[in-house]
């Protein structure tokens, strides 16, 4: 680390004032944390390796602002360090359509993950660090260190109070992720005021107990050398993540310094002026960047970063000569392409094949494709034996020293940490290299991870949730484990595939679409109970999200169902046929995919003229989009043997046939239009 000089202090002041000016211009935002963390930002960023002109270079150091409310700080950095963000953009802070939205968003160049919901960023960073360790262990060879970067995180009191961060950081300690450095803005302030109203725990002891190295900076407001020293020390820690507890003053330099009033409100005009004067800037000017600061970062960070990237390209070219197969695979992944013909490995079923639980069918898919897809990585939140997500030759992702596995392993033991798992797979996905990250748990417990699931959809991380035990069909574990509202919630998320496949071909289709998705996450809901292989299903048809499984001329009713209920509806159609009632059967495994088919196609599945009845052993909310009448469960489930519980709720061929007859009777003589028809 070079000696600190006046230019460092000038740069820190520039960062402070650029951040304050953004918040003042917008008259909205959070100036407190940027003022306190500007020194750390300067010290961390000037030594990072990245190329602002190619922000997705794979071996860059990554930076996560977990206290996303201090986003003005990040925009100041992105501007000063040469990313595609002008002073004009900073002036548009928090305005509609700007490149400087209210919290960091994943799509912006230089923003690694979307943050704002506290606790997520640091948990994503654990995923980034896992991804890096996996890439290094998979592709590095003697003399060819293709991957050797760090993930740096800033986080505040709020992130440390959130449970999701505890889950992820506990796992990071177990995994000995030495490539992770977190800087804790210990300012003892949150929105309610002093942290002494709710947060007295000894964070240091907690992180030490997790297996982290903990370092201190006592005067984070001014001690640049202290921060730099701690950072160097942190980077030496190879088998422990590091938390640097950096004590700062929120709103440092402002008249409101040290108070929660500076957390989330612009500084008063006279306060801004006194701050600028104190820092040696003209109090009447805004958005000022001294040329020396641009020059300093250009010379010390941007140019070396670009040089690192060029050297990396040269190294990769030599690597490609020495290890052509590994290089080709890595290159393919960097291009975001799946291997050709991987889909031919997806299992295909005939109606004569035996009935199998869809969780088992999912295991068969994973077993069939893991070898084709080195980018497939994931695991379960301690439900491996019941969720069936571990392929037979899997190696666990574990620190080599533990004797439990290897960093090149691709099966992650998440422990009972659903929310942490969700945030971690988002981070792995955000790393790049085409990672296809999955996490598994019971469908009902995906709700535990709602915060992370929502961010996957918002950010467009194509992660996969393998969600087994998807209904009352799980039986004796009872209402606590039986999902009811879960799919309605997940289907309400924009940009989310929610699959509930009915048989083997549909499970293959769900994985096919999920793995081909570049920007949409998927939940694949799977049954505990056996499901028959259906006449009329195919991977091709199910990949449309919905299709006519059984067509019949002059039908009296369309019955639409998902997952385990499709087979029962097929039997219900036989009961109805005995009474001379003709029913079409539609399988609708994913609303999201179906909604993206052409209008003609959708109309062919749900035509006018006859009533449509939906059948699903879950909440009926949401089904009115497709059906005139819904048969579902709008109460909590019951404990009992799976088939008995189905009988209890009347989800039998006879019970469904009765609902179908009632529906037909109700609509007799009425004009029936497809619910798909809408004014706009
Ligand atoms: C999950 C979540 N809950 C609540 C909030 C609202 N919120 C934003 S900042 C904040 C307090 C954060 O305190 P701290 O991390 O110490 O930040 P500082 O005030 O020190 O900048 C809260 C509660 C949020 N962004 N995310
Ligand atoms: C909590 O912090 C406030 C503000 O610094 C201080 O006035 C108060 O005495 C503290 N209370 C306790 C119990 O530590
Ligand atoms: C964690 C890790 O891999 N760190 C490496 C980062 O890069 C430097 C050299 O550029 C290596 O010395 C570290 O080992
Ligand atoms: C609902 C269900 O099948 N639960 C099982 C999940 O797996 C665990 C461990 O294998 C079993 O103990 C549960 O009964
Ligand atoms: Mg704080």
UniProtKB/TrEMBL annotation:
Give the signal sequence positions.
none
User: Quick one: which residues bind Mg(2+)?
Assistant: 157, 187, 189
Query: Biological process GO terms, please?
Result: pentose-phosphate shunt
Q: Which Pfam families match?
A: Transket_pyr (PF02779), Transketolase_C_1 (PF22613), Transketolase_N (PF00456)
Active-site residues, as the UniProt record annotates them: 418
**Annotated EC:** 2.2.1.1
InterPro entries recorded: THDP-binding (IPR029061), Transketo_C/PFOR_II (IPR009014), Transketolase-like_C_2 (IPR055152), Transketolase-like_Pyr-bd (IPR005475), Transketolase_bac-like (IPR005478), Transketolase_BS (IPR020826), Transketolase_CS (IPR049557), Transketolase_fam (IPR033247)
Q: Which cofactor does it need?
A: Mg(2+); Ca(2+); Mn(2+); Co(2+)
The lineage's top-level taxon is: Eukaryota
Q: Report the catalytic activity.
A: D-sedoheptulose 7-phosphate + D-glyceraldehyde 3-phosphate = aldehydo-D-ribose 5-phosphate + D-xylulose 5-phosphate
* Residues annotated for substrate binding in this entry: 30, 263, 359, 386, 469, 477, 481, 528
Record has Transmembrane helix as a keyword? no
Residues of the site described as Important for catalytic activity: 30, 263
The cellular component terms of Gene Ontology attached to this UniProt record, alphabetical and capped at eight, are:
cytosol; nucleus
Molecular function via GO: metal ion binding; transketolase activity
Protein residues bound to thiamine diphosphate: 69, 116-118, 158, 187, 263, 445
Q: What broad class of enzyme is this?
A: transferase
Record-annotated Transketolase-like pyrimidine-binding domain positions:
356-533
State the family it belongs to: Belongs to the transketolase family.
Q: How does it assemble?
A: Homodimer.
Q: What does this protein do?
A: Catalyzes the transfer of a two-carbon ketol group from a ketose donor to an aldose acceptor, via a covalent intermediate with the cofactor thiamine pyrophosphate.
- Protein name according to UniProt: Transketolase
Recorded source organism is: Eremothecium sinecaudum
């Amino acid at each position: 680390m070079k000696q600190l000089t006046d230019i460092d202090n000038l740069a820190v002041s520039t960062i402070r004032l650029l951040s304050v000016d953004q918040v003042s211009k917008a008259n909205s935002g959070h100036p407190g944390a940027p003022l306190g963390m500007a020194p750390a930002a300067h010290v961390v960023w000037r030594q990072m390796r990245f190329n602002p002109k190619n922000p997705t270079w794979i071996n860059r150091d990554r930076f996560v602002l977990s206290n996303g409310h201090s986003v003005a700080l990040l925009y100041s950095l992105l501007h000063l360090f040469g990313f595609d963000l002008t002073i004009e953009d900073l002036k548009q802070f928090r305005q509609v359509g700007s490149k400087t939205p209210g919290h960091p968003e994943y799509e912006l160049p230089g923003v690694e993950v979307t943050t704002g919901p506290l606790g997520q960023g640091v948990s994503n960073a654990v995923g980034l660090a896992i991804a890096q360790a996996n890439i290094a262990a998979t592709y590095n060879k003697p003399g060819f260190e293709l991957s050797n970067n760090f993930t740096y995180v800033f986080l505040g009191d709020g992130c440390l109070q959130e449970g999701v961060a505890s889950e992820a950081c506990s796992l990071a300690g177990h995994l000995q992720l030495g490539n992770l450095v977190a800087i804790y803005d210990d300012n003892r302030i949150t929105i309610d005021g002093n942290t002494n109203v709710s947060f007295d725990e000894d964070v240091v002891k907690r992180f030490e107990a997790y297996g982290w190295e903990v370092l201190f900076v006592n005067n984070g407001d001014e001690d640049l050398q202290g921060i730099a020293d701690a950072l160097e020390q942190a980077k030496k820690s190879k088998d422990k993540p590091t938390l640097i507890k950096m004590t700062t003053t929120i709103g440092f330099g402002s008249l409101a310094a040290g108070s929660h009033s500076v957390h989330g409100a612009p500084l008063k005009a006279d306060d801004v002026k006194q701050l600028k004067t104190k820092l040696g800037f003209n109090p009447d000017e805004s958005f000022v960047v001294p040329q020396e600061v641009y020059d300093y970062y250009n010379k010390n960070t941007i140019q070396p970063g670009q040089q690192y990237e060029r050297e990396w390209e040269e190294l990769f070219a030599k690597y490609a000569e020495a290890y052509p197969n590994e290089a080709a695979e890595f290159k393919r992944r960097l291009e975001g392409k799946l291997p050709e013909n991987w889909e031919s490995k997806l299992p295909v079923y005939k109606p004569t094949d035996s009935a199998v639980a869809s969780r088992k069918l999912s295991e068969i898919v994973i077993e069939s494709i893991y070898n084709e897809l080195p980018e497939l990585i994931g695991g379960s939140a301690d439900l491996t034996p019941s969720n069936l997500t571990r392929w037979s030759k899997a190696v666990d992702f574990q620190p080599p020293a533990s004797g439990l596995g290897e960093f090149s392993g691709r099966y992650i033991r998440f422990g009972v940490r659903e929310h942490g798992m969700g945030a971690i797979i988002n981070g792995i996905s955000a790393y790049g290299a085409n990672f296809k990250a999955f996490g598994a748990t019971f469908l009902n417990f995906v709700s535990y991870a709602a915060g992370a699931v929502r961010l996957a959809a918002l950010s467009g991380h194509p992660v996969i949730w393998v969600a087994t035990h998807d209904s009352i069909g799980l039986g004796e574990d009872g209402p606590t484990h039986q999902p009811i509202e879960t799919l309605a919630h997940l289907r309400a998320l924009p940009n989310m595939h929610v699959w509930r496949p009915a048989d083997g071909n549909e499970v293959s289709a769900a994985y096919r679409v999920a793995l081909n998705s570049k920007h949409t996450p998927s939940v694949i809901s799977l049954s505990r109970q056996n499901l028959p292989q259906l006449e009329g299903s195919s991977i091709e048809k199910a990949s449309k999200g919905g299709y006519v499984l059984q067509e019949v001329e002059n039908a009296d009713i369309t019955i639409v169902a998902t997952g385990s209920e499709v087979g029962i509806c097929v039997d219900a159609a036989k009961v109805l046929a005995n009474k001379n009632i003709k029913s079409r059967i539609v399988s609708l495994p994913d609303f999201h995919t179906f909604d993206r088919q052409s209008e003609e196609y959708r109309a062919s599945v749900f035509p006018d003229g006859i009533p449509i009845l939906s059948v699903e052993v879950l909440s009926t909310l949401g089904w009115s989009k497709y059906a005139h009448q819904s048969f579902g469960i709008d109460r909590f489930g019951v404990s009992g043997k799976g088939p008995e519980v189905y009988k209890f709720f009347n989800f039998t061929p006879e019970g469904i046939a009765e609902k179908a007859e009632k529906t037909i009777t109700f609509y007799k003589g009425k004009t029936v239009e497809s619910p798909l028809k809408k004014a706009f």
